[in-house]
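Practice set, problem 2.
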Amino acid sequence: MELGRLVPVPPREVWTSEAHDFTPWLLANYESLREALGIDLELSAAEHRVGEFSLDLIGRDLGNNTVVIVENQLEATDHGHLGQILTYAAGTGASTIVWLATSFREEHRQALDWLNQRTAEDVHFFGVQVSVVKIGESPPAPLFEVVAKPNDWQKRLRTATRAGTVSPRGELYRDFWSRYLKRISGRGWGRRQTPPPANWMDFPSPISGTRINPSFAAGGRIRHELYLDSGDGENNLELFEAILQRREAFEAAYGCPLEFEELPGKRACRISEYAEGAIDKADDWDSYMDWFIDAAERMRVAIAAISNGAGSIVAAGSMEGAAPIGETTVTAARRSDLTS
């Protein structure tokens, strides 16, 4: 039997520019990174604004709905990027911080180990070394090797999986969302997700800085919403007010009045519709799913009616091509306000 031989390929031969080639590629092709990290990763946006700076990639861990950030470096690690990941972690409230580079200096690997030992248990720092290989004339293939991770990371993952500490109500939610995901399969509403034992799910939105979410709200109600959270409260409010200025056109396209909820005291805002419903009424689940799907379709129609096609809102009365309002990037938001 004749076997091929792995040949290393310089990463810069595949991705000439980190910002223009590698980062967009990783945003669209993060499955291998997800497997290397061992988390249910979803990357949602590139060049996410953090104050005056731009984070390479932001997303979330679908398993626990926490923020994940990724900072890329198509070269050996340096002190500058170490400072950047700390700045971005603080600015986004990230729980998982991934520093990706072609090689790690021992001092920087030790720094990540030190951070994992000193920070809270729900904060995780990873160092991931990226390389490229091919066999003969095959297309180049990326390799992601985790060189720094939290202590006993794989053991913790296995323990959490075995523990199965999900309440009976959480199991109901997980069963409902599992069926819902099957119902919407093929609609193009985002990548595969793991059904959570939580009262809500979220999906990508055409407007940057927002998500389209079905949920079970308090008071025996179900809710479908456009959830505004770019990670920055001021940006969220600016975007909320921009949509509010287009309320008439937005609601006309949606097909009925909506609740515009600024959510004072919270970072996020939402625009929502409510109906009666509760997770423990399993006989009504099919009708809830029908309502969620219809609301999601109408929400996307309403978004298209007021956006410029590039993820931004156009001001009322503006001509096509006018400067966008409230342009932000998508983040995975913590949803502590959704309770039932």
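Problem 2, part (b): a different protein.
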Amino acid sequence: MSPQSTIPQKISLVSQTRAILSEGMRSGRWRGSLPGQRRLCEELHISRWTLEAALDALSRDGLVKIQHGYACKILPAPAGTPLQPKRAPRVALLVPQPLARLRQFVLLWVDDLRLTLNDRGIGFAVIDSINAYRAKPARVLHRLVDENPHDAWVLMLSTRAIQAWFQQQDVPAIITGACADGIGLPALDPDHRAAGVHAGHVLLRLGHRRIAFVRPPLPAAGNLATEAGLRSAIKSETRGTPELRVLTGDSREEINRMIERSLITPAPPTAFVFARAFAAITALTFLTSRGCQVPGDVSVMSVEPEPVFEHLVPTMAYYTLSPALYAKRMARMITQRLNGTASYETQHLELAYVPGKSVGRVHGGAP
């Protein structure tokens, strides 16, 4: 977990860092002394030079005392400083791991969202906590929200347990992706169910009757929506007796082992649909290492986009969405949430299908 203050954005990084540190001290986030420079640089996503320049400015303002070799001491606010100055609204994005480890699509729309919110005077922080994504996250979420007060939260890759906690605690939140069953929070959902339906029909038309869907063991709501879409497509098929197998894996080793086991069954899948882009890449390289021809022997498809797909051999078939469009719609929902005018209905964004070379017809045609 890495609790953060608002990440500096736009204008002068030194000026914004100075303002963020000043606000944090006045609001009581830091008492007595500031955290060490290394920790502040990591939390604020800034260089050491930027931090030192901001601290020098705060020292000249009489707000901190710089003690070389020790943490900066917080000094009493000068006379005339408002005790509770008006602050900008703040929004936190909750993710399971640092942004640098997430997909490029996520990095692009988060960066666009940060700039858009900054233009509107809204602070933005990214908080990663893998512990919040455990099966029972209540205790972790209580501590996380208490230690990082924000006016609204954006929940990425959230499980049903996370969504239910925010709903039960009445903490303002917006979901990136689908709401789980029984959850009534605002959500911006790339239409994974529609993508699942489309993927199912694409594969069925190519003669596939044994389709495997590979998702994480603790699936996000969007993964379950994709699964539901695939099941709907298969249920509507009138030719033959198609089946959907749901396989789970969350690491390279698990995915490789799962594929190996599925291929040695008497009737192995002829197509794999992956909920996660990295899993699709892992599968493609593993299948190639086993001498399998893609798509000659087995087809591979990803529901997530990944820029590297265009450079694979064969190129990957996948679904995609404009990061700029997603950020624009999310910024609008956040503003409405902060103003108390948000709709609690899920807003869907259609995913576009990119037909790569990793999907082909079953040899011999449909049974």
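Answer key, part (b): The first strand starts at residue 64 and ends at 65. Residues 1-5 have pLDDT under 50 and may be disordered.
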